[in-house]
Amino acid sequence: MIRIQNLNYAVGNFALQDVSLHVEPGEYFVLLGATGSGKTLLIESLCGLNRIDSGRISIDGVDVTAVEPRRRGIGYVPQDYALFSHKTVRENVRFGVKLQPSADRERLSIDDDPPEKTVMEMVGVSHLAKRSIRGLSGGERQRVALARALAIRPRVLLLDEPVSALDEQTRDTICRELKRLQRDSHTTTVHVCHNFAEMLTLADRVGIIDSGRILQTGTPQEILQRPVSARVAQFVRAGNLLTANAKSAGRRVELTCDGGLRLTAAVADPPAPDGKVTVMLRPENIQLGAAVPENVAADTTVIEAAVRDVLDFGPTVKVTVAVDATVELHVSLGKKEYNIHPINTGEHVFLTVAPEDVHVMPQ
Amino acid sequence: MIRIQNLNYAVGNFALQDVSLHVEPGEYFVLLGATGSGKTLLIESLCGLNRIDSGRISIDGVDVTAVEPRRRGIGYVPQDYALFSHKTVRENVRFGVKLQPSADRERLSIDDDPPEKTVMEMVGVSHLAKRSIRGLSGGERQRVALARALAIRPRVLLLDEPVSALDEQTRDTICRELKRLQRDSHTTTVHVCHNFAEMLTLADRVGIIDSGRILQTGTPQEILQRPVSARVAQFVRAGNLLTANAKSAGRRVELTCDGGLRLTAAVADPPAPDGKVTVMLRPENIQLGAAVPENVAADTTVIEAAVRDVLDFGPTVKVTVAVDATVELHVSLGKKEYNIHPINTGEHVFLTVAPEDVHVMPQ
Amino acid sequence: MSHPLLSETRTASPVIGIRGRLFAASMLGFVALFVVGLVGLFAADISYLDADAFSRVLRSEDFRSAIWLSIWTTVVTTAIGLLFAIPMGYALSRYRFPGHALVDSIIDLPIILPPLVLGLSLLVFFFQTFVGRWIHSNVIEFALQPQGIVLCQFLVSASFGIRAIKLTFDGIDPRFEHVAMTLGCTRGGAFFRVALPMARRGIVVGGILIWTRAVGIYAPLQIFVGDVPGETAVLPTAIFLETSTGDIEVALAAALLMLAMATVALVIVRVVGLAQR
Amino acid sequence: MSHPLLSETRTASPVIGIRGRLFAASMLGFVALFVVGLVGLFAADISYLDADAFSRVLRSEDFRSAIWLSIWTTVVTTAIGLLFAIPMGYALSRYRFPGHALVDSIIDLPIILPPLVLGLSLLVFFFQTFVGRWIHSNVIEFALQPQGIVLCQFLVSASFGIRAIKLTFDGIDPRFEHVAMTLGCTRGGAFFRVALPMARRGIVVGGILIWTRAVGIYAPLQIFVGDVPGETAVLPTAIFLETSTGDIEVALAAALLMLAMATVALVIVRVVGLAQR
To answer: What ipTM was predicted for this assembly?
Structure first.
């Protein structure tokens, strides 16, 4: 549906470098990156609001690299919405409809209703139609901006940080609605955000962008469990990242971490090279017990440690343990699990890590 | 240590209303509130930067209501730090030291080292001493601002959104350092923030502020498990809030929720009134199973439901179930629990809720 | 947006001691001295006049023609000024081109330049340089003509409008036009449908600034178009002539009329400018 | 802060068609027309002069005394102007008092008022009103005196400095002073140790704006202090006299000197102003 090939675009001392990306029809694609990573620049390039230096952008099989924004068939919701404050809500939503060629305008109408009416109902802002933009709340503004973008029935919906300006409760509601709207209308959507939980809630697939480069694309679970680099692992809150020396031994990799901790990992596909590597242990993949566990499977690592800190976050309890003077590990327990075996600061515990849960990345 | 009594302060059409607050010596107190809740205004009032309309503020047993900011013995780190950009890092940290009476200046010195040197080492910015403010990263700025505030050995440290401007990774590091510094120095600290996880990580006690009023104070776990109102429950991400009709029956309360769902709650202390109430079910307190559980304790509610959505957030898995056409509940499972009994969309499940986990609040 | 806590104009009032109060008093003392001095000056002058002086202004043939000349030339100047200021303000705000900073500075020059210098430059240009003389003979005569008044006023005042309107467009996020373009507008369509209506208050302010500056200039006009009563004498010229040769009360009355006009213009700029925010 | 993506001056360059290009060309056409016209005017005038005209300016006794008088009066005016502008700019930015908006508007009045009107008001005040005559006889003489030049320049130009310095302080978050106060400063200490050093560039800009305006005024001086060569004739007065009675080449050469000064002032304001951001 959307295919970006080797896009390069420099502005000031920042550049999008060799960006390639592919979004399937009907997919909800989230572009995750920190402030200044270039994610807004990439969305703007998709809109045709930047003349890119090199590369190709195609939408629906058509090369749109040199096509004006108004002919790309995109619905764009920019950061802070950019609603036209000199117009009413209805006029805002109608803005794009009036500008479509008259043949298209008929296509947009359903049951003889003007298209802005249909879309305002769908998004739930009909009751605001005659209001001015100034009095609207953040959530209402977001909905109106969405309605304005959807009113021209775009082939692709591009959302730039659509909920970042909202407070937490509104954010949850709007996210759920976005997902529902997108499922119902099957509109291919690219959603730019910097919030990890937001990404997990919405994304069919994700792209991680950093310093103008795409680091990894995949499903949320792929990114979460199998990040390709330490940089991506930091993005997805890996929890425990260790530097280690790797040595392959058959179907296993022996790891000696800085500080002396030894771990055994399963060989990844493709296998990581021997030598200096970064190791990720997700806090939820570490088992924690008060005694040496019985019947430990072969190659499972058992580590003795002292509990440093226990923080109750409600659904999860975050336990920080010291393996030795230099290495601390975070372990995440479900609330119910914790309630059955509560753990206190100062206790001695044993950690078990299966080789499949030790993820090795090149450094 | 800090005692605020019936503070009132109006500015424009906003007002702090009858705020009373008490912070113990050596305590890390977090003031949690959304943008515009008045939390910055309250911190500024503590600093003496607002002339309050009525009420009393005392620090260390001394009434400081009419005392100038420079004589209150506070270390203030404002939002965005307000570092003096025309001075070097060292000059910034030294700024307050020079202004102390000479008798105090000796008190500040340790081992004949000038106090700014000691504090720069403690906070870890010694290597930046001669740098100008302009070139510093966000995290470095935060540390310098903290060092500047600590250099005058304040009796109370007031931090206004100290980490909100930082990216997520730096935020975690700085939070851990803040907590360590505060533990080591036993400086009474008031920390203003809007982030729930930040509060849980840092706070000994919390105050929830909304629209210029303190809604509740207590330990993080008290706030989490026993919010006094639906408004506070929303703040602490209750997950499930239902409107219900309550009817006391001995040591139990029978609840009929809107939509027909019936629940049994333990009587709270103090007991909530009969009639219209709000009910909170924390997602981590709901048990979820594929069959009707055996040996259910008396008064435990069992609810049949259909799984609507399963979202894997890494450490937790969030399951959304439909109880009937109108009521949806969120259930939170630990990752390990989920791995043992995976759940799929569309499945029929049974929820069990113990009466102690049904929290009833007046509406 | 409108929340008082987020407003930039919020001023804190810290708890202060005697020294803080003395400091505030001395700072505010300068404000009081300046304002009282300025208002006192005008008040004393007004007290010196009677209503008769104002009616003598309106009865004087020379003043009536000067007022009329001032009105129509400044209206034309303002119109032409806006015709330039709107596209120029927009272009300077939205487009970057080689030499942008230089062009931007050159446009500021008439703001900072003594108006007298511009009048003299025009005089020399049209009488002494080849190009100027050719224009004078073959295209249009400016010197000693009402159209010369407009040219002079335009050169001296247009930059005020350009600056104000550029700042207005700077304050309008280009995203508004970007969204309009994704919704079907061309670049020009986005300007006319979105940027221009959003800038309307800034354009009013720009127009008033051009007009106020145009109505007040005198030295360059005296050099470039002369001071023939009934022909090229605008209101400031007439006031000057009356001061040196005639009735100082009438001159003062006319000057206070200009003060009143300036006050009205200022109030409009303030009210419209505030509403813009 | 310095990241290009966060910079407000970033201008996008959307993919545009023929119509978009035509639109841009027509907008930029106005810029080109105005700038080429203005630069062409001065270029033609400069081409008309030879180096000799400039040396005649410097050899003329009248011009030399006028230049000297202009220099020392404007320096004094700028100093007094800043003495008022710094506390006034700070007070208007940091303190709110009843009538704040009114006082703020009154201070803007001399910016928008024709300078001629101020000169005439001073003349009438010191010769015709009771208070003015008393000051004239018992305190200090202004009319027809060099100190009158300074008074006139001060009234006409101080507001430019006040406005610029107020905007500078508006741009400095009061939190800086608040922190200083928690660290041991009094209100005044916070001003001198923090706000004033942070505003230094804005103060330079304010001073230059006062100076540029002061050096260029002519009409109010001619009315209030006269135009006696060697006594009260400043540079603009001398240019005017030379234009009407003498050598127009010398007048133009002197005017272009003023143009050069204005250009230098503008460059300083731009460079200092940009560094401020």
So the answer is: 0.88
Interface contact B146, partner D, CB < 8 A: no
Chain B CB contacts of C10 under 8 Å are 11-12
Q: Which residue of A has its CA nearest to B35?
A: A167
Burial D44-74 (b: 16+ CB within 10 A, else e): bbeebbeeebbeebeebebbebbbebbeebb
Contact C20 B13 (CB under 8 A): no
Contact B84 D198 (CB under 8 A): yes
D227, two tokens: 């135009």
Q: Give the separation between CA D159 and CA D210, rounded to whole angstroms.
A: 8
Size of interface B-C (CB pairs under 8 A): 40
Which residues sit opposite B245 in a β-bridge?
A: B256, B276
Show pLDDT as tens, one digit a residue, over chain A (363 residues).
Answer: 899 999 999 988 899 999 999 999 999 999 999 888 999 999 999 999 999 999 999 999 999 999 999 999 999 999 999 999 999 999 999 999 999 887 676 666 666 678 888 899 988 999 999 999 998 999 999 999 999 999 999 999 999 999 988 877 788 888 888 988 898 888 999 999 988 889 999 999 999 999 999 999 999 999 998 999 988 998 887 789 999 999 988 888 999 988 888 999 988 777 777 889 999 999 999 999 888 888 888 889 999 999 998 988 888 899 999 998 888 899 999 888 888 889 999 999 999 999 999 999 987
| Distance separating alpha carbons of residues C169 and A30, to the nearest angstrom | 33
Exposed, middle or buried by CB within 10 Å (0-12, 13-18, 19+), for D228?
exposed
Residues of A in contact with B312 (CB under 8 A): 200, 220-221, 224
State which residue of chain B sits closest to D198, comparing Cα positions. B86
Inspect the interface and report whether the beta carbons of D105 and C23 lie closer than 8 Å.
Answer: no
Which residue's structure tokens are 């108006």? C115
Query: What length does chain D have?
Result: 277
In degrees, rounded to 5, the angle at the alpha carbon of residue D159 between the alpha carbons of residues D155 and D163 is 175
Q: Indicate the helix (H) or strand (E) that contains B6.
A: strand B2-11
Q: Sheet of A14-23: strands edge to edge?
A: A14-23, A2-11, A54-59, A62-63
Helix or strand holding residue C153 (H, E): helix C146-170
B355, B248 contact by CB (below 8 A): no
CA angle A120, A126, A129 (to 5 degrees): 100
CA distance A313 to A109: 49
- Spatial neighbors of B199 by CB under 8 A, at least 6 apart, are B30, B32, B193, B206, B220
Asked if A68 reaches chain D (Cβ–Cβ under 8 Å), the answer is: yes
Identify the three-state secondary structure at position C15.
coil
Q: How many Å lie between the alpha carbon of C75 and the closest alpha carbon of chain D? A: 17
Q: What is the 3-state secondary structure (H, E, C) of C112-140?
A: HCCHHHHHHHHHHHHHHCHHHHHHHHHCC
> Does residue D180 belong to the interface with chain B, where contact is any CB pair within 8 Å?
yes
Residue D175 at interface with chain B, using a CB cutoff of 8 Å: yes
In whole angstroms, how far apart are CA A254 and each of A276, A328, A361? 12, 20, 14
Q: What CATH code is assigned to C61-276?
A: 1.10.3720.10
Cis status, amide bond into C220, omega within 30 of 0: no
**β-strands A275-281, A262-266: how paired?**
unpaired
Q: Over the stretch B136-187, which tens digit does the pLDDT of each residue have?
A: 999 999 999 999 999 999 999 999 999 988 877 788 888 888 988 898 888 9
CA distance A11 to chain D (A): 7
φ and ψ at residue B259, rounded to 5 degrees: 105, -10
Q: Report the C-alpha gap between A362 and B283 in whole angstroms.
A: 38
Chain C, 121 to 160: residues with Cβ < 8 Å from chain A are none
Domain assignments of chain D as residue spans, ordered by start: 61-276
